[in-house]
Design a protein that fits this description.
It is an enzyme of class 1 (oxidoreductase). By secondary structure, the chain is of the alpha/beta class. The chain has 25 helices and 24 strands. The strands form 5 sheets. Strands 16-15-14-17-18-19-20 form a 7-stranded parallel β-sheet, sandwiched between helices. Strands 3-2-1-6-7-8 form a 6-stranded parallel β-sheet, sandwiched between helices. Strand 4 and strand 5 form a beta hairpin. Helix 2 packs across helix 5 and helix 17 packs across helix 19. It is elongated, with a radius of gyration of 32 Å. The two termini are 22 Å apart. Bound molecules: 1,4-dihydronicotinamide adenine dinucleotide (NAI) and 2-oxoglutaric acid. The site of 1,4-dihydronicotinamide adenine dinucleotide has 30 residues, from helix 17 and helix 19. 1,4-dihydronicotinamide adenine dinucleotide (NAI) binds next to helix 17 and helix 19.
């Protein structure tokens, strides 16, 4: 990583697909050929020619000639093009507009595109016409674009090299671009460094030649220690997604500028220990275990996203002590679990698990034996949280009488009746369904003794966590005929991928419905989760907001006023005082301060004036008991 010397080196920035997200001529073709019957085909041909030219496959002047011949553009299309391009300036360039204003006179746009559309777009960034070096169109008398000015060096092969030579800049020159012709200025010895800009397009042949690959302009500024709008380039935030969350999650993280990698299926502890170094955000579902060993290897972890409700698979305290925020999606799949549970109750009450396979084997077993309506039956819900209480409402709506048992005091919905003990519920219910959370103390909550308490013929459901039920005891209770049926969605051991065989004593038992942990697996739930979790994580990264974090003290923050200091520390006396004394010693004005603690850690957010001495940050990092510290601009 180099550090920039003063004054700023001359920056030679390409226009098409670098300054803007798109190629100007492609966009012009789109506008000009709007009513052409073969528009798509011609635009496709133009794009292919652009690409071949950019990657060095076709010589530049030939590519330009062929593209202009296909274009049926006119002078009056240009204002439309400019308006369009103004909306397509690269995000990181827009974000750092003030940099361009500040370093006016050191930044050139050198492009094989056309001055007619480049000049007005870059003018918004204080880049004056004399700092734009580009081609110019030729027109016929009627205003039709006929080609390009052949006297302009940029219209020729090696034009950018010649143009830079003519500029004869004294001092360091850095080139930023996405095309091979941008690299060629460096190759010709006219630039000190070539940065392949890949925010919009990454061309292998260009990337291979680069001194540095920069996925955003922020990265260029960060590497060169130049003033930037963000405190940290988002492309440096790497996301590892396991267990196939909906594709929307990766899309949202990518839109934010993060680097996303997905591993289908889960990783076991050893595999995750291998993969976790360098990961900033880990996304998992219910299977991946985030253990102390994993956390020890996690050298850059900021947040864990549980793309599900349960978080028992995560060492929450370990994460907290390391300053790693954990977020889940507490309500996104609630309804899906409830619907499945209700469907399963009906299906079991009608002994469908037995009848369905018989039908598939050609056996017609029409009988009412062992089948009953659920209307008027007693549904015992163990765990009256979000899922349990919603199931309570839906079950009452179809005529069931609801009993519930929860270790916490809960709002009683509708006509539901609270049981004082688990035993009381088990003895009365016709159907028992588990919706407790997966805390370790709940291991084998239901075993032989509990099954024995249940009514003969009762139906049993578990859609919570596998370790909550003693499976051999359940198998015995079904085999003996004491239970009338069971539906199980979660298991003490679940296959890691869809290729692994599912082994269980419950396989083949009568009136037992087995499902592969799909309570929350609906399109709606997965989409909701894939939006909810990334939004919380990005909110935390961007503003420090911990609201709805499962393990950090929850602070909902007001809009950031200036610089924001985010400080996580061990909860020992005196840390806040140390922070404030340090700020006072450096005459830093505090605009707002927010603090919340729990038994292990303290989370303090301090909004301060823009002006402060840079050494304040170093000093704050060194405050005793600091776990994590970051600054947001
Ligand atoms: N099968 C699947 O695909 C899904 C399974 N789940 C599981 O369902 C669980 C429950 O989800 P929510 O209702 O959203 O959670 P929640 O946290 O809102 O409710 C859990 C309730 O269980 C109670 N509880 C805990 N231990 C208990 C015990 N020993 N006896 C009685 N009550 C006890 C708690 O006090 C709480 O009210 C999740 O933790 C997760 O493990 C969640 C979503 C999908
Ligand atoms: O869909 C999943 O992978 C897990 C669902 C689940 O068990 C949960 O949300 O807690």
């Amino acid at each position: 990583m180099s550090s920039v010397t003063q004054p700023l080196p001359y920056l030679i920035i390409d226009f098409d697909s670098t300054f803007t997200q798109v190629e100007g001529l492609d966009e012009l073709a789109d506008i000009a050929l709007q009513h052409h019957p073969e528009r798509e085909k011609i635009v496709g041909q133009i794009r292919a020619l652009t690409d071949r030219g950019m990657s060095g496959e076709l010589n530049f002047s030939e590519s330009l000639k062929q593209r202009l011949a296909l274009l049926e553009a006119r002078r009056e299309h240009l204002p439309l093009l400019v308006a369009q391009l103004k909306t397509k300036v690269s995000d990181s360039i827009v974000r750092n507009r003030s940099f361009f204003e500040r370093f006016r006179g050191r930044i050139y746009i050198v492009s094989s595109g056309f001055r007619e559309f480049i000049e007005p777009v870059v003018a918004d960034f204080d880049i004056a016409p004399e700092f734009v070096l580009a081609n110019t169109f030729t027109y016929d008398a009627g205003g039709q674009i006929t080609g390009f000015d052949p006297d302009n060096v940029l219209s020729r092969d090696g034009g950018k090299i010649e143009q830079l030579r003519q500029l004869d800049l004294a001092g360091d020159v850095y080139v930023l671009g996405d095309g091979y012709t941008d690299y060629q200025m460096r190759e010709a010895g006219l630039a000190n460094r070539f940065y392949a800009f890949t925010e919009n397009v990454a061309r292998a042949a260009v990337v291979a030649q680069a001194d540095e690959v920069i996925p955003s302009f922020d990265e260029f500024l960060y590497q060169n220690k130049l003033p930037m709008t963000l405190s940290y380039p988002k492309n440096r935030i790497s996301v590892l997604l396991l267990e196939n969350p909906d594709a929307r999650a990766a899309e949202l993280f990518r839109q934010e500028g993060y680097q996303v990698e997905s591993v289908p299926g889960g990783l076991d502890e050893d595999e995750l220990v291998e993969r976790i170094a360098g990961v900033s955000i880990l996304g998992i579902r219910s299977k991946t275990q985030v253990t102390p060993r994993v956390l020890e290897a996690a050298n850059r972890l900021i947040a864990v996203g549980a793309f599900c409700i349960g978080t028992n698979q995560i060492d929450l305290v370990g994460c907290m002590k390391k300053g790693v925020a954990v977020f889940n999606a507490p309500f996104s799949n609630t309804r899906s679990v409830v619907e499945l549970a209700l469907g399963e109750i009906i299906v079991l009450a009608r002994r469908i698990p037995d009848k369905n396979p018989k039908m598939h084997q050609g056996e017609w077993d029409k009988s009412a034996r062992g089948s009953f309506e659920i209307r008027g039956k007693k549904l015992g819900i163990v765990g009256y949280g979000n899922i349990g209480s919603q199931l309570s409402v839906v079950a009452e709506a179809v005529g069931m009488q609801v009993l519930y048992y929860d270790i916490a005091e809960k709002l009683q919905l509708g006509n539901a009746v609270k049981c004082r003990t688990l035993q009381e519920l088990l003895q009365q219910a016709d159907v028992v369904t588990l919706h407790v959370d997966g805390r370790a103390e709940n291991k084998n909550l239901i075993g032989a003794e509990e099954f024995a308490l249940m009514k003969p013929g009762a139906i049993f459901l578990n859609l919570s966590r596998g370790h909550i039920v003693d499976i051999p005891a359940l198998a015995d209770a079904v085999r003996s005929g004491h239970l009338g049926g069971a539906s199980i969605d979660v298991f003490p051991y679940e296959p890691k991928t869809n290729h692994e065989i599912f082994e269980s004593e419950l396989r083949g038992l009568p009136n037992v419905l087995l499902t592969p942990h799909i309570g929350g697996s609906t399109a709606e739930a997965q989409r909701n989760i894939a939006e909810f979790v990334p939004e919380r994580i990005m909110g935390y990264v961007n503003t420090g907001n911990t609201q709805q974090s499962v393990n950090l003290p929850n602070i909902q923050l007001p809009v950031q006023q200036a610089h924001r200091l985010i400080h996580l520390h061990a909860n020992v006396p005196g840390v806040l005082a140390s922070i404030n004394n340090l700020l006072a010693d450096h005459q830093v004005n505090i605009l707002g301060q927010y603090l919340k603690t729990n038994e292990h850690i303290g989370y303090v957010i301090t909004d301060i004036d823009k002006e402060y001495a840079p050494e304040v940050i170093g000093a704050l990092r060194k405050v005793e008991h600091t776990i994590k510290f970051r600054v947001l601009y």
